[in-house]
Design goal:
heterotrimer, A alpha+beta (about 325), B mainly alpha (about 220), C mainly alpha (about 675), A: about 325 residues, alpha+beta, Immunoglobulin-like, 6-stranded mixed beta sheet, 5-stranded mixed beta sheet, C: about 675 residues, mainly alpha, Cytochrome C Oxidase, Chain A, two-stranded antiparallel sheet, 20 helices, globular, CuRO_UO_II (chain A), Cyt_c_oxidase_su2_TM_sf (chain A), copper ion binding (chain A), membrane (chain A)
Amino acid sequence: MIGPDPRDAGSLGKSVLLFSPLGLLFLSGCETAGISFLAPAGPIAALQHHWFEVILIALAIVILPVLVGVPFCLWRYRLGNKNAPYRPDWQYTLSLEYLVWGIPAVIVLMLAILIWGAERRYSPQTPINSQTSPLEVQVVALNWKWLFIYPAEHVASLDTLALPVGREVRFSLTSDKSMQSFFIPALGSQIYAMAGMVTTLHLRADQPGRYLGENTQFNGMGFQDEKFTVIALPDAAFRNWVTTAHQSPLALNDATYRTLLRDGNDHQAVSMLTKDQMPPSDPLQPQGLHFANVPPDFFRNIVNHVHQPPVSQITVPQ
Amino acid sequence: MTGLTSAASHGAHSDEQGSSSRHPGLNLHQHDPQAHDAAEELLFGFWIFLMSDLVIFSMLFATYGTMLNSLAGGPGPHQLFDLGSTAIETVVLLTSSLSFGMATLSMKYDASARKTGLWIFVTLLLGLVFLGFEIHDFSEMISKGGFPSRSGYLSSFFALVGTHGLHVTVGCIWLVVMLVQLRVFGLDSCVKTRILRLGLFWHFLDIIWVGIFSFVYLLGLAP
Amino acid sequence: MTSFLFGKLSYGAFPFYSLIATFAASIVVIGAIGVAGFITRIRGWPALWSKWLTSLDHKRIGIMYIVVSFVMLARAIVEAVLMRAQQVVGYRSSGFLPPEHFAQLFTTHGTIMIFFMAMPFLIGLYNFAMPLQIGARDVSYPLLNSISLAFTASGAALMMISLCLGKFSTGGWSGYPPYTELQFSPDVGVDYWIWALTLSSIGNTMTGINFAVTIYKKRAPGMYLFRMPLFSWTALCVSILMIFAMPPLTVATLMLALDRYADMHFFTNGQGGNMMNYINMFWLFGHPEVYILILPAFGVYSETIATFSSKTLYGYTSLVWASVSIAVLSFTVWVHHFFTMGQSGDINAVFGIATMLIAIPTGVKIYDWMLTMYRGRIRMSVPMLYASAFMILFAVGGGAGVLMANPGFDYQVHNTLFLVAHFHNMLIPGLLFGMLSGYHYWFPKAFGFRLHEKWGRAIFWLWSIGFVFAFMPLYALGMLGMPRRSQEYFEPVYLPYTIVAMIGALLITGALICMVIQLVVSVRERHATNVFVGDPWDGRTLEWSVSAPPPEYNFATLPKFDDRDAFYVDKCNGHAYHAPDTYEPITLPANSPLGPVTCMTMVATGFALTWHIWWLAVLGILVFAGGVIARSFNRHTEQTISADEVRDIETRWLKAVHETSPVPVEAEFSNLNRGRAAGALK
């Protein structure tokens, strides 16, 4: 969980033991919670965790013979071992060929069924559960911060993504800068946000809590600061949050948005917009900057580059 | 069984391939099969180069295809293209392929450097006429506001057609070089294989142009 | 006037913005001066020019490729260590590398490792060994070979110059727009990157054409395709991949250049640009590139495992078809590099399944190598050590690859350190171990003496353990959600993993230092480890049947094949080392200065384009074109070695062969090994 208290860095000695990927299985829940699909907080991340284990088991069938067989051959048929059989001209046995081609083929076939079935069903574009109407959130990737617009609620928030627990969320994403990747590991899939285009992502948080959100696509010098906080709230608390946002003195309009367009992290944006100097702070801490009165077509305008500074005057070259 | 024996002479080598490996269209006036093998190797490599070049053009065509609607409010095919001019370009370039074919034939049957050179000269002239028309077309487009930096569509148009034009320019320089070499060396086997490779290049550009003419111009102007 | 003469170049271009950058630039300058001084001191310039730079001999060109590769490897490893160190101190701290410097480091590290370490290394090995294996005197186009090297070397030189003048790109090795467009990256860094890549991709395309024609047309009589050693088979697959995969890269980088130089709109944010086109073209190159990198290593392992198991390669036909199917499939999977770009789940599923299909032939290969070892007599030489470590580590990395081929899982680990761990797991045990295996294997063939065995083992262990320490933690970090390219991070749980990774990076630095020591020690002891006879490892394929180093003409008479593993069969039957009945004069390509001229003009052109020095760019291209045209008028492009000279060289070697007593494989690491193998006991 992302909390105000930075946790203790785990002792080095313990972690040396954990330097293999398998070590992850022994990580305590506390270390993965909020930042990883290993402690899933929603159905997509839970599925991904499940698929991870299924694929690992399937792979073991192919990989273990190699992990065992190579050391075995190296030892058994070492030069010094004159008792081992030596067949220098043996180069082909039909039945072995069936095994050699067959085993990997069968494993791949099994995994292909998994991909074509479950994984395709839960791709980012597909609603998780189409029975309930999802919450619409429009995401704008900026340098180096995220703007979240709640079109139905007419509010927006900077680098803090509040979500109601148990309700599916449909994200529409774009970027008004270079390409970025929107990622909440504990909830599920990541997806690119690209200028002039809209991508779609469906997620759901099943447990209340605070989760790490981040951009994973390098986009400049503030990239490492580009984290945001996801707060999954029970329904009543979420409605409270929306009400608070409505009371924000700031409206989202061309002027405020152009301030957001300037390069800088969320903290710098807050100090520019609210004029009060805050102490330098932790990128993981929500800045609590909300916008009220978001016009209905604001997101569409961003996709169409309406707020970008005008392109330099187009002239016919001589 | 012996794994490795020595082929004492080159004869043993060529026996397997025989005289049938002579490249069609090439009369090297030599009975040394090695010279023919060498010529075939050169031409085969050039074919592979052309395939690689074709990948470049296919990328440009694909980019053009995806950018057809990226007009960004700028002019499109209907405002910019002049079918009359491009039709003339097409005729000129196709004719130049014919004249190059004549050069190759005269090289094969006539073996007269003079006549071959004449056809190559005709090809060069036609190539230059083509380039002249293309430059004229481009300047017309630019004067109508269709310059490369106007939109993604125009960027991809100029990249595709311009790359072809650049190839034709290189081809023209090569034609000049071959004219000089014909003068200096006459029709020796080295010059012959070079002319044959230049011919492949020239015909290849013709095929690309047919693609450009149909895909870019005709389809672009289709209602 | 100044801006005409120097373009954008000014005093501000000198790397005085940070101590580390200044230091790195000084190393490059001092290193260059030092090498030049050394060559002057040993009066080596004439020999360097006539024996190496202008040589069209495929063996020398191959060695020069590998020299380029080693220099670039050293730089890129140092960069990796700097990045690892930054991440160790980067927990809630900006550390010692500012973000911009860190970003330059990961960009140059990736660019160098792919284009200027891996590519030259594998092309160098192919250049050296492939013509020998198929019984050819040279490649099909020796001059083109030299020019290809010139293009690659000029790209590498541009990378080095970028250390000293100006800053490099910060857009990563894949250089995704729109970040690399002028709007976000106005500096010359991206231009350096564009021209370095463009030059190298042109060189690689030409190499591909050259190798493919060589294999189709230059095989010795009786060397049918299905008698070719696996290494040469992979050369054929790789060259076909190069021919078709390099042009998309050239097109993508040149379009990006047009965007930046001519204000066009291929990949820009506005005006109809579409950056997805770049990403598609880049990976249309990039994925086949992965197999361009890995297939040569597969080729090397097929040779070394068979040789050091004293056994025929198991499943030759399977291995050939596996290589070919990998090459073909590699063109059908590029979308898996961007499952997260918003296309439909159906498309992702198709490409995910296609990606996993590649795992089948790859798995077949690993099993076939294991079966080659089965019932063999395995000597744990350095090349064999690399091959063994490869099989184990590559199986793990391949597993990670199959995981990531699953779109459902990839949505989680894309762009995280899991991905970084995966491709390093493919490229270090896969590509690099393969190259080092080949380096130790063919070094005696190239120089006539063996590399120091004990140092070789030290290098191996440092590389292997270093790799495990450096990259296994990254799998964990990726699953904990740490993005790649993070200069700073805020999760305490990441810290211990970064420390373990740092230890790994230090071990790898140790390996690099040991490689230098090994080379020095081996050169010093070269008389004791001399293997002039040419067959120190009881080799099976044709390259071992000639002296070490091989004569310029490779084979006094062109060999004729009746079998696979021809040299091994001959040795068994006592037909090896027989003098031919007659010697004939041999015609070889004469030296040409066009290669070095190309290199110099292309460095000038690339540099000039980067800094907008237009006159120099035009001049460079004109001189290059003039050089090519002038060369086409040169009719003295061949030299002939007389029959007497050939007889002298061959007689001297055969005399040495007969004077050398065969050494059993048990003693092959000792100084008894003078290059004549007695073979393994049945």
